[in-house]
Design a protein that fits this description.
This protein has about 150 residues and is of the alpha/beta class. The chain is built from five helices and seven strands; from the N terminus they run βαβαβαβββαβα. The strands form two sheets. It has a four-stranded parallel beta sheet, sandwiched between helices. A three-stranded parallel beta sheet has the order 1-2-3, covered by helices on one side.
Length: about 150
Amino acid sequence: MLDNLRSTENVGSIFRSADGAGVSHIYCCGTTPTAKHPKVKKASLGAELTVSTSYHHNSLVLAAELRAAHALIIALESTPESTSLFDFAFSSNSQQETILVIGNEISGIDPQLLSLADHVVHLPMAGKKTSLNAAVAAGIALYHLVFQNK
């Protein structure tokens, strides 16, 4: 779930990473540019055609619907209570849809949306900066979650 991302290049890059990791669907929410945007298409290099997608005006409504359908929601956000992605013991249940939430490049994930997540994970940072580019972080998290148990 891409929640209010602003960069078409980030969205296109996330489509490419999602395709590579075998993700089946991307939910674009709020102000997130959709796969129809020419710059998203350019950055995704065709991955917008291989990963299904849908647009949802309100990520909170979508998250509530997904929870009601028993989806597992994992938010990628650094908070005082978040767990390092690399310490997070994730085991995929093939019957349960798993949703990774990526937030806005500047403001992160809406606190109300964070409260709907089953788990909040972060990428540990060893340098001076406190975060990575949204597309880079999404790619790392997708690959780790998909392949850690294979």
